[in-house]
Amino acid sequence: MEHIDGDLEFLEESIEILQEDGPALLAEIRAAIDAQDAEALVRPAHTLKGMLANFFAGTAKDAAADLERRAREDRLDGAAELLVELDAGLAQLGDELQAFVGARRE
Amino acid sequence: MRILIAEDERISRRTLQRTLEKWDHEVVAAEDGALAWEAFQRGEFDIVVTDWDMPEMDGRDLVRRIRASDRSRYAYIIMLTARAETLDLVSGMEAGADDYLPKPFDRDELRVRLTAGERIVNLERRLAEKNTKLHAANEQLHRDLEAAARIQQELLPRALPTMSRLRFAWRYLPCDELGGDLLNVVPLGESEAAVYLADVSGHGVAAALVSVSVHRSLSVRHDESSLIVESKGLTAPGRVAQRLNALYPMESNGGRFFTLAYASIDEESLTMRTCAAGHPGPVIARRDESIRSLEPNGMPIGIEPEGDYPTVTTQLAPGDRVIFYSDGLMEAMTADHQIFGQEGIEATVARMLDHTLDETLDALIEAAINWQGSDQFTDDLSIVAFEVVDGSS
Question: Which residues belong to CATH 3.60.40.10 in chain B?
């Protein structure tokens, strides 16, 4: 919260963006992995990494960073496992943020 | 301040934008480098905060374009980079970024970086304003110098006197806009003429002012105050020098003095009277191919109040050429400091005896240029000359 100066309204806006852009980026990542297209994987992994960094979501951000690194090195081994981790991490983050905002609103 | 943000990731972009707007900055946010570049071209921005890794145009290209643009206003660029991306940081600073901020940014750090940026932008702006004023002043000065140079050019002998036995020619090449040399050919009475060439110490505006004043002093012909004509005829050149010496003491002219070669010529008797006050004496070339130079015979004008300025009389003959020059010609110098010198001048005059007087003067300038290997002279260069033609021609 300090990062956004305790601005609850803005946190909600950010959660909305996360819920819109997060799944879209995940879908791009999934398609790139399915197609074994390392080049196509770099951009969404990088963007998702940056997005998650705003929420200090360590595990999920690390998974995105790992995916980006592998994509840049053109080695997609273990990418599917990282995607599962990322998917779960994103869902968990969404839930936690919603719970946090709900608690603040009460 | 007006701040441009370039960041492709939406939450980071919104977070940055919202933070900056809360701090009362005017913010334009672009979602990639290409859109940021378009926005930058449309508006004036004090600060650009740019992500590094973006689609379409990355941060490095954006920074390079901004730095290559010829905007008068300086934009301070802060690049956003993940802590691990050291290589990005190096290439970003090399491309022209001023500072960097790790992602996700820390608010206090962002505020400090913006303060530093604002300070630089303000300094740059004040510098730009001063440069603009300086440029305008310089332009004005340049225009004034050009106008002054035109006035000075007007003083050069445009129409040379037509005399039955004397033909004149001259060249004048100031090394700055304004020269410190002056020369003139003045017809006097039926058969006489005065020729003079002076070289004020230094060059530029101050020297030019003195040269114009001396020109005025020497231009009065039909008046009691004339320096060059007295009731009993032409003033002897030594006497002209002596009177100028009394009029132009160097302490009254900002420490400036001048050298003077002055001659009066009578075309009937073919006598030439000269005084070379601190100035190289003229080269005299005879039809029999003998070449000689008269010696300087007095101190430069303005240095010694009691200076002695003798007049030397030389008998001329048909075919003689007499060439006066300033030391800008004589002191044309090679890279290893060898001067063109009196020898170079005399040799060139000798080589050109079968050519016209005008061609000879051109040849002298060309020889000096060849000697120094450049057509840029470091001193004013002037030459004034005459030749005696046969009575029948």
Answer: 157-388
Residue pairs spanning A and B at CB distance below 8 A: 47
| Distance in Å, alpha carbon of B121 to nearest chain A alpha carbon | 27
Closest CA to B307 of B265, B273, B342, B258: B258
> Which of the following CATH numbers is that of domain B2-129: 3.40.50.2300, 3.40.50.720, 3.40.50.300, 2.30.110.10?
3.40.50.2300
- DSSP string for residues in B200-236: ESS-SHHHHHHHHHHHHHHH--SSTT-SSEETTEEPP
Report yes or no: B104 at the A interface, CB cutoff 8 Å: yes
From the list A4, A18, A43, which residue is nearest B55 (CB)? A43
ipTM of the complex: 0.88
- β-partners of residue B261 are B197, B276
Chain A residues near residue B51 by CB distance under 8 angstroms: 50
CA distances from B354 to B155, B289, B351, B366, B370 (A): 31, 10, 8, 17, 21
Asked if the A7-105 domain carries CATH number 1.10.760.10, the reply is no
**B16 vs chain A: nearest CA distance in angstroms?**
9
**Least CB–CB distance from A3: residue in B53, B55, B104:** B104
Residue whose C-alpha is closest to residue B228's, from B265, B277, B259: B265
> For B157-388, which CATH superfamily applies?
PPM-type phosphatase domain (3.60.40.10)
Nearest to A47 among B9, B15, B107 (CB): B9
Q: A78 vs chain B: nearest CA distance in angstroms? A: 22
Residue B61 pLDDT greater than 60, yes or no: yes
Q: Where in chain B is the domain with CATH 3.40.50.2300?
A: 2-129
Render pLDDT for B11-44 as a digit per residue (tens, 0 to 9): 999 999 999 999 999 999 999 999 999 999 998 8
pLDDT in tens, B228-260: 888 778 899 999 999 999 999 998 888 899 999
Is the minimum CB–CB distance between B18 and chain A shorter than 8 Å? Answer: yes
**Mean of the pLDDT values across residues B149-154?**
85
